[in-house]
Each structure stands twice: as structure tokens, then as C-alpha cells.
Design brief:
Blueprint: H1 2-23, H2 51-63, H3 69-92, H4 97-123, H5 129-150, H6 155-184, H7 190-221, H8 226-248, H9 253-258, H10 260-276, H11 282-292, H12 298-325, H13 332-353, H14 357-389, E1 431-437, E2 440-442, E3 445-449, E4 452-458, E5 466-467, E6 499-504, E7 508-514, E8 517-527
Keywords: Coiled coil, Signal
Pfam family, one: DUF5667
Domain YvbH-like oligomerisation: 309-361
């Protein structure tokens, strides 16, 4: 019996050797993170066959060597931070996608455990403020670390990182949800709730401002990976949602008064960033301006957002009916956008009836965005089909300015001569259209006369950014200007249904790419 116990102690001690070093790294703060975003040493990662021993060592440390709910929560946070460090390490090491996905799964399960603990404490009627603070802090740390890794991650790792970022957002939402219930049942004092909310929103605001600067640095060098841009936009919405929820929930009514100035400051920051990055959203901006001016009526804003969504839906349905009646083909993706918008609008009305004005506002905003995107896509599709058949009547929705000239069919073939102006120009048009679809630019190579204009029409479900920027695959269009180096640069995201045009005065074959996704590229051949 004694020998068996000694054997167990030896085995346990051996296993704990694997996990102990990471717990001893608290004072090592790896750049570029601040103390709040510092991580322990990754130690063994899922890429190692011995990682199972490290996980078992963490389990033993938590369940055998740690006593008391407070101390256990602290150990769980450290384990979650270790898992985050492991995910960062395997991505930076260029591990296979299966290893990255495994590491992502461990990050998510460790975070889910803390969320579950917060729910349990709340269900027992106990003060969960300490655990809510830890969950908030962990989720925000995950946001910063994962976003930093995402911009340098290889293609095969980005999907898993995007999922991990989304789950970290859910951690923030769960912490806020539990906090609201705790305040409502008076398990947490208003003053403490205000401190938690103010710190969370202030830190989230700072992270967004830092990401904005980082994205501008990346853009100045050439490419902003689409996942990085999407993560930034989603983070803006995350902060907006936090402001909406706190401003609209009855349980936070007294708390709001104590942190009003912090909220106004956060609203101002989001408005500035939306304008700076050309991410305009009239419904969100209207809400933020009222927060900034301290005159917010959430119920009224929800009512207005629902009305805006209904108008956008009506416009989209009318556009679809007219297009199909005229014999135009509208893609199933556009119809799916409409169905999604209808579902969001239905939920918005249900939430409004239940006096969940914050929820109603959020759902109505989503409905408005989807319906507006559908209108743009329908308009672009009608314009494109009209141009192909020689019709140049404006699309009846009027959402996008129609292209005024007819376009001749464009020859499409591989580029054989780069920067060579020699070509048979007898049938080269002075104005052509290039359509951007989910498959890329069509035609992939277009011919235009010197001094002629090329018009890009975005018929995809995502934004596009045609640009002749610095890139290993092609030379820069020589005219100076634009926002980086070449005049041939849209300098903005061209949304679904929108157009961009550029006049070419330099003879040659000029390759370009989608600045948001460099794997999408095309070429414009300019002839005398």
C-alpha cells in the first residue's frame, strides 16, 4: 500500500515537472504586449507528443493541489493563458492546421470552463464579481494576442484564429450577461459593477485604437489580410454592442450614471475610427452620436433602427422583383442576404415587444446592413447584365450610379507580355468593365485604349480594393498618387454593388490585385 502511494507521488511529481515552468514565468513580460497582455511561457505545445503530460499536470495542479474556489479560479486563468500561449507558439512556428486547430480547441475549452464557473456561482446566489473580472481580463487578453498573431499567421492557421477570436468575444458577452443578473439581484454593488464595466470598455477602446494604428502601418506597406480587416470591424461592433447593452438594460440604470463620461469618450472614439477607416454605418453612427451628446433614448433608437431596416427591406424586395420581372438573373447569395435580413428584422420586432430595446436595436442594425448589401448587389447585377446586352438604362433602385456608356466584349486571355504596349488596337475599346465575383476579377485581363477608362463593378458578397501597389507579383503602375505609391489604387474598400473607375494614360500591361486578398489579381492592357 505504501509502495503504491510512493509510486503515485513519484509519477505525479514527474508529470508536474512539465507544467511547473509555465507557472513560474509571471515576471517575464514578452514584447510587444503590455503587462495586461503578458503571457506565461508556452512550454510544451500540442505539436509535442508529450503535451498530454502537460495537460494532465495542469489537471492535477487544479484538482489535487489547489483548494478553495478563489484559488481554483486563479489557476484556471493561468491554465487558460498557457493554452493561449501554446496557440500563439504553434501558429508562429508554422505548425500544420490540425495542430493549430487542436491548440484552438484547448483555448476554447479552458475559457468555457471559466464561463461555466461564473454561471454556477450566479445560480447559487453568490457574488461572482471576482470571477467576472478574471473572465473579462482573459477575454480581452485573448483579443489582443490573437489579433496580433492573426496579421502574421500563415493562411492555413487563420480560420482557427478567427474562431478563437470569436469565442473570446463570447467570453466578454457572457461576463456582461452574468454581471447584469448579479446587479439585478443585488449580489454585486452598483459601484463595483461600474468599475468592472468602465475598465472593460476602457480597455476595449484602447485595444481598438491600437489596432487602428497597426492596420494603418500594414496598409502603408501594402497588404491588409482580409481576416485582419474583418477582425477590426467586428471589434468596433463589439464595443458598440457593449455600449448598446449597458445603455439599454434596466439593471444597469444606476450604474450608467457613474460611468457616463467614459461611455461618451468611447462613443466619440468609435465615431472617429469609423470615419477614418471609411466604415460608415448610418444606424450605428446615429446611436453613437446620441451617446456622445448624452441624449440617448434607446427605445426610440430601436424604433428608428427597425423603421430603417423595414425601408431597406422594402427597397430590396422591390429591386429583386423588378430585376426578375425584367428577366435578370439574381444570384442565390443575394437572396440569402434578404432571408437573413428578414430573420434579423423579425427578431428585432420580437425583442422590442419584450422591451429588450438593446437587443432590438442590434437585430435591426443587422437587418439594415444585410438588406442594404442586397440592394447594392442587385443593382450591380442589373447594371452588369444591361451592359452585356447593350442596355444602358439605369437600375431602377437608384442605389448605385449607373455606368453611362456601352461596353464592347473584352478579350480574356493569359498575360504574355508584361509592360509591353504593342498590340492590335483596331478594336480596343475606350471604356470597359471588369466584374469582381467570389471567384475573382472577370475578365482576368482587359484591354483598353490609352486614355480610356476601366470600371470595376463588385458583384461579390465581400468588399474589394483594386490596387497596383508594391507586390512581388507585379510592377507598380508608374503614375504617382493614390494612397500608397501608385495613382492606380481605389484607396478604399469597394462594397458589394459599388463601382470604381480609373483612367489609364500609360501604355503597357499592368497587373493589379485585390488589396484585401492578394490571391485575387488581374491585368489591364493599355494600347496606343
Amino acid at each position: 500500500m505504501i509502495n503504491r502511494m510512493v509510486f503515485k507521488v513519484i509519477v505525479l511529481s514527474f508529470i508536474l515537472m512539465f507544467s511547473a515552468p509555465a507557472f513560474a514565468q509571471d515576471e517575464n513580460l514578452p514584447a510587444p504586449f503590455s503587462e495586461e497582455e503578458a503571457l506565461p511561457d508556452a512550454g510544451l505545445t500540442p505539436a509535442s507528443p508529450f503535451h498530454v503530460f502537460e495537460r494532465f499536470g495542469d489537471w492535477a495542479r487544479l484538482n489535487i493541489l489547489t483548494f478553495g474556489s478563489t484559488r481554483k479560479a486563479e489557476v484556471k486563468v493561468r491554465i487558460a493563458e498557457k493554452r493561449l500561449a501554446e496557440l500563439k507558439a504553434v501558429v508562429e512556428a508554422g505548425a500544420e492546421s490540425s495542430v493549430v486547430e487542436s491548440a484552438e480547441g484547448f483555448v476554447n475549452s479552458s475559457t468555457a470552463s471559466l464561463q461555466n464557473d461564473a454561471e454556477i456561482l450566479d445560480a447559487r446566489g453568490q457574488d461572482a464579481s471576482a470571477l467576472i473580472e478574471k473572465l473579462n481580463s482573459l477575454s480581452l487578453k485573448q483579443q489582443t494576442v490573437l489579433e496580433d498573431v492573426l496579421e502574421r499567421a500563415p493562411e492555413q492557421a487563420r480560420e482557427a484564429l478567427a474562431r478563437a477570436i470569436e469565442n473570446s468575444r463570447k467570453g466578454l458577452e457572457k461576463a456582461e450577461e452574468v454581471l447584469g443578473r448579479q446587479v439585478e439581484r443585488r449580489l454585486i454593488k452598483e459601484e463595483k459593477a461600474g468599475e468592472i464595466l468602465e475598465h472593460s470598455i476602457g480597455r476595449l477602446k484602447k485595444q481598438i485604437e491600437d489596432r487602428s494604428e497597426k492596420i494603418k502601418e500594414i496598409a502603408a506597406k501594402g497588404e491588409v489580410p482580409p481576416e485582419v480587416q474583418t477582425a477590426f470591424e467586428e471589434k468596433l461592433r463589439l464595443l458598440e454592442d457593449r455600449l448598446v447593452n449597458v445603455q439599454s438594460k434596466e439593471e444597469f440604470k444606476e450604474t450608467r450614471a457613474s460611468i457616463r463620461e467614459s461611455f461618451k469618450d468611447a462613443a466619440s472614439s468609435v465615431l472617429e475610427l469609423r470615419a477614418e477607416h471609411k466604415l460608415r454605418d448610418e444606424v450605428s453612427e446615429s446611436f453613437l452620436k446620441d451617446v456622445e451628446r448624452d441624449r440617448l433614448d434607446v427605445a426610440q433608437k430601436a424604433r428608428e433602427a427597425i423603421a430603417s431596416a423595414e425601408r431597406a427591406m422594402a427597397e430590396a424586395r422591390t429591386a429583386l422583383t423588378r430585376a426578375e420581372s425584367a428577366g435578370k438573373t439574381i444570384s442565390e447569395n443575394v437572396k440569402e442576404l434578404l432571408r437573413t435580413a428578414e430573420e434579423h428584422l423579425k427578431k428585432a420586432k420580437e425583442a422590442f415587444e419584450a422591451k429588450d430595446f438593446g437587443g432590438a436595436f442590434g437585430q435591426a442594425t443587422s437587418a439594415f446592413r444585410n438588406a442594404s448589401a442586397a440592394v447594392k448587389s442587385i443593382t450591380a447585377s442589373v447594371q452588369s447584365q444591361n451592359l452585356r446586352t447593350g442596355e444602358v438604362k439605369p437600375a431602377e433602385t437608384g442605389a448605385v450610379r449607373p455606368l453611362p456608356v456601352k461596353t464592347k466584349p473584352v478579350e480574356s486571355r493569359p498575360v504574355s507580355e508584361v509592360n509591353s504596349g504593342s498590340a492590335n488596337t483596331s478594336s480596343v475599346p475606350s471604356r470597359v468593365e471588369v466584374v469582381f465575383t467570389d471567384e475573382g476579377f472577370r475578365p482576368n485581363e482587359a484591354k483598353v485604349q490609352k486614355g480610356g477608362t476601366v470600371v470595376w463593378v463588385n458583384k461579390s458578397a465581400t468588399a474589394v480594393w483594386p490596387a497596383s501597389a508594391m507586390h512581388p507579383t507585379h510592377d507598380v503602375y508608374p503614375e504617382k498618387g493614390g494612397c500608397i505609391a501608385s495613382a492606380f489604387d481605389a484607396c478604399r474598400r469597394i462594397g458589394p454593388g459599388e463601382t470604381f473607375e480609373f483612367k489609364f494614360d500609360q501604355v503597357g500591361t499592368w497587373k493589379y490585385h485585390d488589396h484585401l486578398n492578394a490571391s485575387m489579381f488581374g491585368a489591364i492592357k493599355v494600347a496606343e
